[in-house]
Amino acid sequence: MASVETAAEHERILREIESTDTNCIGPTLRSVYDGQEHGLFMEKLDVRIRNHDREIEKMCNHHFQGFVDSITELLKVRGEAQKLKSQVTETNGRLQDDGKELMGSMEELQKCRVQQRNIASTIDKLSHCLPVLEMYSRLQEQMRAKRYYPALRTLELLEHTCLPRAGQYRFCSIMAENIPMLRTQIRDTAMTQLRDFLESIRKHSDKIGETAIRQAQMQRSLDTQPRAPIGRRSRKEAAAAAADGGGQRGSPVSEQDSGILDVEDEEDDEVPGAQDLVDFSPVYRCLHIYTVLGLRDVFENYYRKQRRKQARLVLQPHSNMHETLEGYRRYFNQIVGFFVVEDHVLHTTQGLVNRAYVEELWELALSKLIAALRTHSSYCDNPDLVLDLKNLIVLFADTLQGYGFPVSQLFDMLLEMREQYGEILLKRWNVTFRQVLDQDNFSPIPVSTEEEYKHYTAQFPLQDPELDKLPFPKKLPFSEFVPKVYCQLKEFIYACLKYSEDLHLSSTEVDDMIRKSTNLLLTRTLSHCLQYAIKKKNVGLAELVQVIINTTHLEQSCHFLEEFISNITNVPPDSANATKLYGTSTFKDARHAAEAEIYTNLNAKIDQFLQLANYDWMAAAPGGGALEASDYLVDLIAFLKSTFSVFTNLPGKVAQTACMSACKHISTSLTELLLDPEVRQISIGALHQLNADVQECEGFARAGPVAGFQGDTLLLAFSDLRQLLELFTQWDWSAYLADYGKPSCKYLRVNPHTALVLLENIFTSVSTALCPVCPLRRVLTGYLSRKYPLLCVCVCVCSHG
């Protein structure tokens, strides 16, 4: 069984060897050598080889004759082939000889065709490379000319269009490698120009603002023309300028590129805008460049950040700004210049700055500006500077309002400054009034000619028909103080009116402001100055009299001031809300103070004369002749006569009151001399001398030194002293005691206590001079006590309380 299988396996291997390529029989033979029947397989292989050999032999025997025939025929063909070869060789030789020239032409044609193809290829390549080179050359030219935005556009065209068409060349690779560096260079150069521009407009913002404010002032002066936005071009023109500025302006860096243009030669009728004052091409260029580079947000953030920093610098005032108007003007010019630039950028660029950003900057500026003005204006004590500052603020506000910025807070601040301005004016006018008072001679103004009279009446509204009729020379009733003060009041009103101009206030508000300020001037400043003039030392009665006359005329002129204010404000004085001037009460108070000072000074002068009194209280009784008044009293009466002669121009009641006050003071002072506690002894002779002095006073009163007294009214000032002296000089005690307490008593004004004190002094003098034990005092006192106990009770009550 095993031998059968082995035989079948060997048969299979043999078939495989017969049918398989000899290169692949290795595995088959290996399987034979790996087996155990190697010898048997070799036997079978030999058998198979012998079988095949027999088959080959059979086949060869079968085809041998045909092979022989073929060899024979082949030998015959070899001869013919040799002949043919000879003919072909000969023909080839002749052909080679004949084709040499043609081959040369063909080779030349081939070379020409190759050259032609190379030229065509070169032309094609050059047609793609030349635009690249031209574009690159243009780029280099634009870079040298600093036309960066066109250079950037050329760079974009070179990178995305020309270089891809040119192919892979080394110079193209170098150009492609340089493109990012060129972009960076353009970006950095544009940013450098922008920084230069920002620095330039920061330095020249005051020039920009000065021009804008000047044009606003020019526009304000054109009252007949409607106000247009100051210094702003039309939107189309500005937009066109912005569009052209980025792509077309590529000049080398100069003053124009740095931002400032020379506008000194502009026509006066033209109103240059920000585009005329500043070259914005660096901004437009940089904006376009960063937009093309895809960095617009970076540029916007940088620009806004830098401008915010510049805004803070611009809004920081100098420490000495308040000293001169130039400091304020430079400060305002810088702020206006800053916002003129921002307004133009807002309207000529698309989104570089927006309205919210500008409004935020303006709110910041307003807060810092108002705080700075409040601080620095508080140091100012010059009303002219405050007024100039107010006009400058109004012009500043009108300028920025023309650009669309809200300025209502500035006008509110000006209304606050109005109070400060009023206080400064009051201080200045306080000095002015005091100077006028110090320089016044307190004498009526002498007028010699009609021109002088008209000069004074033009300064002060004097209405006195009687004075007009008097011939020249004549005197005005008041002193120089009156017209000067009246003119100063009008000047003060004008100063208040100047501040109210251009504040957009109604006529009623202006009128109310002027009247309130004028009332403060009258009630505070002028009133205090008058009180100062009245109360200061060494003011004579004549000066006080003139002050009363002056204040009387000023009081009468108050309604003229009312009309003056109404004329300049166009508000009727009788309108419902019109504030009334307090001038009348001010001058009345001053006049009353002067009157009181006259009474005080007159009494003080009388006291000076009375201090010269030197009575001999123990004088002997007079003889038959009449006694003469004391010398001091004669001088006092002479002084009073000369003094009251000056009172003729005073109001009647003032002169009468002064005269009555003087007489009462004399009477009271003489009584006090008589009852002086230090005077312990008084003789009848001394009483007679005092009586002579009182008679002198009564003679003065009876002469009527001041007109207007009815009858003997002035004598009543001496009635108390007169009755007391008559009681003692006439020794009319019986009448005094008999009628005491009755309304018809002759000595009704004699006080019992005064009578007893004087009586005691007389008793003391009598007892001392005549007899030390004289019982007259005791007897008379006892008699009075027994007969008139009520009188003694009154005396006791008066003496104890």
UniProtKB/TrEMBL annotation:
Q: Which UniProt keywords apply?
A: Exocytosis, Transport
Record's GO cellular component, any one? exocyst
Region annotation (Disordered) ranges: 215-257
Extract one GO BP annotation from the record.
Golgi to plasma membrane transport
Q: Does the keyword Lipid biosynthesis apply?
A: no
Pfam families xrefs: EXOC6_Sec15_N, Sec15_C
Q: According to its UniProt record, which protein family does this protein belong to? A: Belongs to the SEC15 family.
Q: What is this protein called?
A: Exocyst complex component
Which species does the entry assign this protein to? Gasterosteus aculeatus aculeatus (three-spined stickleback)
